[in-house]
Structure formats: C-alpha cells, structure tokens
Design goal:
The structure holds 2 protein chains of 2 kinds. Chain A is an alpha/beta fold. In chain A, about 30% of the residues lie in helices and about 25% in strands. Chain A has one domain: 3-Layer(aba) Sandwich (Rossmann fold). Chain A contains 8 helices and 11 strands. In chain A, the strands form 2 sheets. A 7-stranded mixed sheet of chain A has the order 1-11-10-4-9-8-7, sandwiched between helices. The radius of gyration of chain A is 18 Å and the shape is globular. Chain B folds into 2 domains: about 70 residues; about 200 residues, no CATH class. Classes of the chains: A alpha/beta, B mainly alpha. The interface between A and B is medium-sized, with 24 and 17 residues.
C-alpha cells in the first residue's frame, strides 16, 4: 500500500518512496485536490498486455514522471489517460468524474497532450495555435496568440510557416497549441527526446513554469532519469506493463538503481 | 432465344474466325521470332491465344442471347457487375469488417445515380443493348475510383497517424482530423478520370464513338455522345470516391473517437492488389 500521506513536492525529500509490490494498489493523497486518478487501468491487445492494473492519483500543480525501459507500457499508459486508447478494464477520474461520461472531444481539451514529435499541421504557427479553440467554435484573437507565443519563448512567430521551424521551436509551438485549449492536465510523451541539450533545458523550464503558474497537473513520460529528477516531484517506475514503484523521485530512482 | 443465337451466327462470324486464324498465325510468327532469340513463350502464348479466343466467342454467344432480353435482365446483369466490382475493390480493404458492403454501396451509389440520370434525360435508352455496355463502362470506372480512393485514404491515414492523433488530442472531431487525407484520396481517385476527359479526342478516340461511327452514326453526334459518357463516368467516379471515403472514415474510428486503423493493424491486414 502506498504510504505517502503528504503530497511530496520537488523540495520534499522526506516523502517516502514505495514499491508497488502487488498490482492494483491505489496511492492515497489527501491534502491537495486530486485532479486526475487512474483506477486499475489495464489494456490488452489480443494476447499482448500493454498496461496491467495501474492505479495512481495526481494533484493539481504536481508533475509526475513515468520512467522505465522501452516497452514497459509508459506511453500506452499515457494514451489511456486522455482516452486516445480504450482501457480493457479500469477507468480514469477527472476531478472525481468518470471520464467515460465526458464527451471524448471535451475530455481531450481538458487533458491536453504533447507528443514526442510536434506533429504540427501544415500552415502558419498561428493557425496551429488557433486549431484547438476553433474546434469549439472559438476564435483566438491575434493578441491571445501573441501572448501564448511569448509565453513559450517565440515572440513574433505567429505568421511563420511551420516548415521553417527547428525541432525545439516546433515543440514549443506544440506546447502553446495545447495550452491554447486551457487544459487542466498536461500529458507529455517524451517531449524532448528528439531535441538537443539546450532545447531540452528550455522546454523543461517552460513546463515547470507553466505547471506552477497555471496549477495544472502534469504527467510526463521520459527515458531520461536526470530529467525526471529535474522536473518531477514524484516518479512512477513501470516495468513489463506494470507499475512497480511510485514515490518521491530521488528515492524511487535511488531504490530502482 | 435460339433463333436469336442462330441469326447472330452468319457469314460475318465465319469471316471473323478466318481473320482470327490470321491473327493467330501472326502471333505464332512472333513466338518463333522470340524463340530464335532464346525467349521461350510457346506454351504460354498457345494457352493464352486459345483461352482468349474461346472466352471471347463465349462472351459473344452470351451477349447474343441477352441483348434481346428484357430490361429486368439488363438490371440484373448490372447488379451482378456491381457485386463483382465491389468484390474486386474490397480487396484493397482486406481485414476491414464490412469492406465488401462498403464498396458495394459506394459503387452502387455512384453508378446507380448516373445511370438513373442518363435514363431520365434519355441520353441512355432503356434497352438492354444500350444499358449493359454503357452501364458496364460506368460501373468499371466507379470500381477503379473506389479502389483508388480506399487505397489512398488508407495509405494517408497510416502515414499520418501522428497528425491525426495530435488533432484528436486537441479536441477535434474524427471527421476534422482526417479531412485533409479524405480530400487527397478523393482527388487522387478522380485524377485519372479528369485526365481522360482532358485527353478526349486528342490522345484517344474511345470505343463507343468508334463503334457508333463504324455503324453509320454521324461522327459529330458520336463525339458529343462520347463526351456525355465520359462526363457521366467522371460523375460516377466522384460520387463513388466521396461515398466510399466517408463510409470508410466511420470505420476507422471507434465510438469514443479513437483511431483504430494503425500501422500494426494495417500490417496484419495488408491489402491485396486488385487485378
């Protein structure tokens, strides 16, 4: 059973890490609002188990990293959280509401996702940023787009064609595009894995600042343990489709070594 | 019916057979020439020539029997052709549930609408001798359009899974997330028919016009009629391409707006080439 009674933060080295020895353990976190809760999530495709009985809670303003070897089920788990894939069993609660009762389009607006590759749509930066709100019939004003671009460190990029952006710039636009939807939760699937070191640090700082500023919840998949330490208060370790440990990042990663 | 068959076998058939023997002799000479250059196709050429002659004589006999049949018989023939066309086009969607029905309804919508419009405007007479040949041309082109559209749409989706899921992750409806790929697929399926229309009379004189001129129809009217047929082929292809991609779009997403056609799924159900 998880034992972290106080929500660990990046500056909370006293929090206790736990090994998730048996499946289906639910971590109890009481003092902050639970924004997102995965309950016994599993996904199986044919005979292949991608995610097995993973339960976790995440509070507002918190960043949780998911680490583990390739094929451990990290990205598969993340895709279940915004229902890009359907769980075979279990569910997700968003602010205590079962996500199956929320329209998928609205759910994905509220649980934004930044992928490993930016996947920008052909056209201008501003068209990409306006895409999400446009799906709900909202038109972003030029000032709002400029403000979002400034926030991600790309002032004056609104009219640029996305084909002329560097990898780091494209990933910043992808982040701004997701933020334009004003999500409550941000999922990030190895968002810096294709970037150079300078861009990696820039994106990391950006994510930290934005999560703190907007008090969002963030779940980030990373293969980079140093990145998990820099970003996340808590870390989940996945192996062979299961959650094997969760707790304060330094302790979890230390125990896992 | 036998009388019709007997009437259709006249001196021209005997002359045709004599001409066929001449054509076979020329082919045999080419086969010998190939053999002289160590290209051995004797057996294959003999089988192909024999099969070709027998098949065409049989088709002629069947047409001789059917061309004087009722309109109902003509409609049944077109229906069978549509089923065969759907079966061929559906091979591009092997592994997808309901692919045959999807292709059938698309081809039936495209070809059916156009044939009905031609009958209504009297550009096609409700006679089996007109209905079957013109209808078959329209169905065949609708089939090609259907196969090209589904193959392109499938390939575009597989190539753009990341972009589609990025759009879904931003709250887009499935239809919006694949809209550029649907447009591209429909355009690609129409392109050969558009080229056909552009080159009409310049690069090729289609069979219908050639046949009408040979049978004594005014060449100008034959040309105009050929244009009508090609325009109807274009219309049928457009309707088929649109209907099949819209129907296919609903099959590649789950009810929870999740993309279900992914590279792994596509590999498991690798499409066969349509003959």
């Amino acid at each position: 059973m998880m034992t972290t009674s106080t929500p660990p933060t990046r500056t909370d080295p006293q929090a206790t890490a736990s090994r998730a020895g048996s499946s289906g353990q639910v971590e109890n976190r009481s003092s902050k609002t639970v924004e997102l809760e995965a309950r016994h999530l599993s996904r199986r495709v044919g005979q292949r188990i991608l995610v097995q009985d993973v339960s976790v809670q995440a509070s507002s303003g918190e960043i949780i990293a998911i680490v583990g070897p390739s094929g451990a089920g990290k990205s598969s788990f993340l895709r279940l959280l915004n229902r890009l894939d359907e769980p075979t069993s279990g569910t997700v609660l968003l602010r205590s509401e079962d996500y199956r009762s929320i329209r998928p389009q609205e759910l994905r607006r509220r649980i934004g996702m930044v992928m490993q590759t930016a996947y920008l749509f052909p056209g201008t930066v501003s068209a990409n940023i306006a895409f999400g709100p446009r799906q709900r019939g909202e038109v972003l004003a030029a000032g709002q787009i400029a403000s979002l671009l400034e926030r991600v460190g790309l002032p004056g990029f609104a009219d640029r064609d996305v084909s002329h952006l560097s990898g780091g710039e494209a990933q910043r636009v992808a982040l701004a595009r997701t933020l334009a939807n004003a999500p409550e939760v941000l999922l990030a699937d190895e968002p810096t894995s294709a970037l150079d070191e300078a861009s990696v640090r820039g994106i990391e700082e950006l994510i930290l600042d934005i999560i703190q500023e907007r008090q969002m919840t963030c779940v980030i998949v990373t293969h980079n343990r140093a990145q998990a330490t820099r970003l996340a208060a808590r870390t989940m370790v996945m192996e062979a489709s299961r959650l094997i440990a969760i707790g304060p990042t330094r302790e979890v990663l230390h125990n896992d070594d | 019916m036998m009388t019709e068959l007997k009437n259709s076998i006249g001196s021209d058939v005997l002359m045709g057979l004599a001409q066929a023997i001449g054509a076979i002799a020329l082919c045999a000479a080419v086969v010998l020439l190939c053999r002289w250059h160590a290209v051995r196709v004797e057996r294959e050429a003999a089988v192909s020539l024999a099969r070709g002659l027998v098949q065409m004589v049989l088709v002629g006999i069947v047409l001789a029997l059917l061309l004087h049949g009722s309109l109902l018989v003509g409609s049944l023939i077109l229906m069978m052709m549509t089923v065969a066309a759907a079966n061929t086009a559906a091979r591009r969607l092997k592994g997808m549930d309901g692919a045959l029905l999807l292709c059938f309804w698309s081809i039936a919508a495209g070809a059916g609408t156009v044939i009905a419009a031609m009958l209504a405007t009297e550009s096609l007479r409700p006679e089996i001798s007109m209905l079957v040949p013109v209808g078959s041309m329209i169905i065949a082109n609708a089939m090609n359009s259907c196969a090209q559209a589904v193959e392109r749409f499938r390939a575009e989706i597989i190539a753009h899974v990341g972009h589609i899921e990025a759009a879904l992750s931003l709250g887009a409806e499935p239809a919006v997330s694949v809209a550029p790929y649907l447009q591209s697929a429909v355009y690609a399926s129409l392109l050969p028919r558009l080229d056909m229309m552009k080159s009409l009379g310049l690069v090729w004189i289609p069979g219908v016009m050639a046949g009408m001129v040979v049978s004594g129809t005014s060449p100008v009217y034959a040309g105009i009629y050929q244009f009508i047929v090609v325009a109807m082929i274009l219309a049928a292809s457009g309707i088929t391409g649109l209907v099949v991609t819209v129907l296919m779009r609903s099959r590649v997403f789950s009810t929870a707006a999740q993309l279900t056609l992914r590279p792994a799924e596509a590999a498991r159900s690798k499409p066969e080439r349509a003959e």
